[in-house]
Write a structure and sequence with these properties.
The structure is a homodimer. The first copy, chain A, has 3 domains: about 130 residues, 3-Layer(aba) Sandwich (Rossmann fold), CATH 3.40.50.720; about 160 residues, 2-Layer Sandwich (Dihydrodipicolinate Reductase, domain 2); about 80 residues, ACT domain (Alpha-Beta Plaits, 2-Layer Sandwich), CATH 3.30.70.260. By secondary structure, chain A is an alpha/beta fold. In chain A, helix 1 packs across helix 11, helix 3 runs parallel beside helix 4 and helix 12 runs antiparallel to helix 13. In chain A, strands 7, 8, 9, 10, 11, 12, 13, 14, 15, 16 and 17 form an 11-stranded mixed beta sheet that branches. Chain A has a 6-stranded parallel beta sheet with strand order 3-2-1-4-5-6, sandwiched between helices. Chains A and B meet through helix 1, helix 2, helix 5, strand 12 and helix 11 of A and helix 1, helix 2, helix 5, strand 12 and helix 11 of B. Strand 12 of chain A pairs antiparallel with strand 12 of chain B. Chains A, B: Its EC number is 1.1.1.3.
Chain lengths: ~425, ~425
């Protein structure tokens, strides 16, 4: 099996190391030998700690697709457009199997690429695109193949989980912890892709398609990041028996599919709440298998390369699946439920001036929207400064809660925008 | 795909239900239709809640192998010998794929059956044999295929985990909780297969082979069940920050492979310690992927049938692997390390008469065996009754600890056999 590797960043280098170190293991498992015959990267001369001897160098990664010595293309460049996409299209059109770690590409162009793969009768595999080293794509597509999936959710971004865990452990604020994470290399210089929830949403869109046999639909994912999670929210969460995690949730209901990424309050005794630091975890719920949990490292050289190579091994051994578990023409279009329709319990933190009647006014708004309150906590007592009033609601439709919070924000005694965090029903 | 189902107990019935309820899903995923054409069970007339209409009935399950209408055989009878084994052999020899949920069969005759499957060029699959609905066999064999595995361990028996969790939550004794578990259907009338660790050892032997590419070797698994775990041990464990779990552990060291099933003290903050009730969980550690965790239901109609059908779907879609991940002739014989050679920390509970000098005598024995003590706790004070002395050791070879405990047991002031529980290094 002669491989062309496009992208010699962390993941590409990890792949070269596995092929170098585990040649015997890989050939024992598949009966085939693996050789990297061609590569493409940004700089030809950079020292990456692995040898590129004997490999053809391409300045333009797309040329890997037409190299007659390349049997399989690994796209490890990233990004939903440009070279990464062009290379995948060119390789599939040339009838060459493609393995990619590119979540953005799959989330945005997944269905169209799946169709192209089917048309050319070649596999398109992407285990590394979701939750790094955890073999969750395989589990969803093959391991749980006999189940109707009702929900899949999880911690899909290690950077956010690291930040939230650190905030919890140190009591620090988002900005300070983000800075630490950047210094430690756990967050990018431009962190927005991670902390604003986009990366998790890419992964969720892919999981949704795998879970429900529906075309990938990244645009309908509701996305809210973790920038507004405050040290105060984390402290209140603890008081109520919760931790805050950035979750991606895809759920099938009679009305359609919910797809949402946002901070969640999760009960401390759940598996998800106990996933700390840079780890990822995914929970998949099927009608026969019930709940299954998968946990591991969601990023990094070794884990991501491990997932890439699992795909390479599968393809070399002739184990292939339709890209999203079923062929594109068998997919079902399922309506997407907007987040306003979401029904759940909510944590609400209000910042108000502690004047007589303020609680009565707030309660009246909730009563008018028919929102019932499970608990209410007022912290601090200071006539001229803002104090926190924290509420946990019973189940309510999100649209009603949003209306209530708008009304409260307009109050004279409101000192800041109300803050709301959804409570996960796990 | 015409299927013959041998065994119409819980799992067999679950399989019939999946095929009945998910016909479209299964054919969308594979492009093939699934039909159960023949069955064999104990009683032809029993009402199982599923229809057997149109299926050929066999009193002798082995006859399924020679039915020309049967393309694939599901062996859901159980037991390492007799009909189950005969059927698998007959089906493989007839060139028919076999899917089984039979851990005992695989643990005892796995290598020989794998060889037979290879000789006849047909798949032998057994996802349901290890950890029920969790797709752990697939993860080990395919998802982590590019890794050298250093260790695989986990909670492999839901009955034991239920009993230990209940003992912890209620403070009850083993015998009483076992009785409850039997009443609730979580434990068999004859519980020995579960509570003495044999079932977990079967699964561990299979995982060991998958992890290290070595022939299955059930006989060299060290096995110790949970009958001797007392309410007192559980209370002391909590005091030291541990929980007690029955673990199966397979570990590769420079000397060889450790394979052991026994109660373990696990730190409360680990993923494994937070697995409660009838759930199973497996942790697999690879050199590139690092640590990955898999959790779910380890038994029951739905989860086990889900795993059986995952194998059926794979085979129907042409996705096959060598039985244990690599062909039998590529397997390596690796020496097994006896438990006496195990090096670790230990929890020791002594029951002694509280006389002057007793602690000095105990300490001297540990000193002579060069065992250093991390902490020591004496509970109770009663000159004429037995009191508990609890010790946590630093790392020591098990043989030395055993010698020390033998000496202590021979003391005049020993009131009962010393009790030892290994502390897991997770």
């Amino acid at each position: 099996m002669r491989i062309g590797v496009a992208g010699l960043g962390t993941v590409g280098v990890g792949v070269l190391k596995i092929i170098e170190q585990h040649g015997k293991l890989l050939s024992d498992r598949t009966g085939r030998n693996f050789e990297v015959v061609a590569v493409s990267g940004r700089s030809r001369t950079k020292d990456r700690g692995v040898s590129l001897d004997g490999m053809t160098w391409y300045d333009n990664a797309v040329d890997l697709a037409s190299d007659p010595n390349v049997d399989m293309v690994l796209e490890l460049i990233g990004g939903s457009e440009g070279v990464a996409r062009d290379l995948c299209v060119a390789a599939l059109e040339a009838g060459k199997p493609v393995v990619t770690a590119n979540k953005a590409l799959l989330a945005v162009h997944g269905t169209e690429l799946a169709r192209l793969a089917e048309k050319n009768n070649v596999p398109l595999a992407y285990e590394a695109a979701v939750a790094g080293g955890i073999p969750i794509v395989k589990a969803m597509r093959e391991g749980l193949a006999a189940n109707a999936i009702s929900r899949v959710y999880g911690i899909l971004n290690g950077t956010c989980n690291y930040i939230l865990t650190e905030m919890e452990e140190t009591g620090g604020d988002f900005a300070a912890i983000l800075k630490d994470a950047q210094d430690l290399g756990y967050a990018e210089a431009d962190p927005s892709f991670d902390v604003d929830g986009v990366d998790a949403a890419h992964k969720l869109a892919i999981l949704t398609s795998l879970a429900f046999g529906t075309p990938v639909d990244f645009d309908s994912v509701y996305i809210e990041g973790i920038r507004e999670v405050s040290a105060q929210d984390i402290a209140f969460a603890q008081e109520f028996g919760y931790r805050i995690r950035l979750l991606g949730v895809a759920r099938r209901t009679e009305q359609g599919i919910e797809q949402r990424v946002h901070p969640c309050m999760v009960r401390k005794d759940t598996a998800i709440a106990n996933v700390s630091g840079v780890f990822n975890a995914v929970v998949a719920e099927g009608d026969f298998v019930d709940s299954t949990v998968y946990e591991g490292r969601g990023a990094g050289e070794g884990p991501t390369a491990s997932a890439v190579m699992a795909d390479v091994v599968d393809i070399a051994a002739g184990r292939v699946s339709p890209t999203f578990g079923i062929p594109v023409d068998k997919m079902t279009d399922i309506p997407k439920i907007p987040v306003e329709e979401h029904v759940g319990c909510y944590y609400v933190r209000l910042s108000v001036f502690d004047r007589p009647g303020v609680i009565a006014d707030i309660s009246a708004v909730f009563r008018d929207e028919e929102i019932s309150i499970e608990s209410l906590l007022q912290r601090g007592r200071s006539p001229e400064e803002a104090v926190s009033v924290v509420l946990i609601t019973h189940e309510v439709k999100e649209a009603a809660l949003s209306r209530a919070l708008e009304k409260i924000e307009a109050f004279d005694h409101s000192a800041a925008r109300p803050r709301m965090i959804r409570i996960a029903k796990l």
